[in-house]
Amino acid sequence: MIEKAPEENVQKLSTAGKLMLVITPGVKAGAVTGILIGPAVWFIALETKLSLVSFSCWLGWTLVLHIITVVALLLVLAGGFLSFRTWQIAGDKWPGESDSTEDRNRLLGLLGVGTAIFSFLVIVGQEIGNLILGPCQ
Q: Is residue 33 part of a domain?
C-alpha cells in the first residue's frame, strides 16, 4: 500500500558507492513533525499563557487564555492526524522488527500519535486548573 515517489522527488545519497540511501521528503518530514509538534505546541501555549496571565487578569480578559488553549488543542490534533496519516501510508499494521523503511515509518507514525495524545491530555489537564480555580487566583 505504499505509493512510490516520483523519480524527481527522490534524493539518492551514496558514500563511496557502498551505501545507498533513498530519502522521500514527504513521509520523513511528516513523521518527524508529527512527533515534535505536540510537545512544541504545549510548551509555546504554556509560556504564552504564563506571560499573558497578569496582563489578562489586570484587564479582565481571561477569555484570551482559554482561546490559547483551544488553538493549542487544535494544533496538537493536527499533529496527531499527520502522524496517523504517516502510519496509514506506511501500511496500517504494527511495526515489525525488520529495518525496512515501512517499519520505520510505522514506528514514527505511532510514536507521533502517542505523543499527540499525551500532549493533548497535558494541555487539557492544565486547562481544568484554569477553569476550576480561575487563572487570576
A: yes
* Widest distance between CA atoms in the chain: 66
Greater confidence (87 vs 1) lies with: 87
Q: Which residues pair with 43 in a beta bridge?
A: none
Name the phi and psi angles at 98, rounded to 5. Answer: -80, 170
Q: Which domain holds residue 108?
A: 25-133
- 36: its cell numbers: 515534535
> Is this prediction's pTM over 0.90?
no
Q: What is the DSSP string of 31-82?
A: HHHHHHHHHHHHHHHHHHHHHHHHHHHHHT-THHHHHHHHHHHHHHHHHHHH
Burial category of 40 from C-beta neighbours within 10 Å (exposed 0-12, middle 13-18, buried 19 and up):
middle
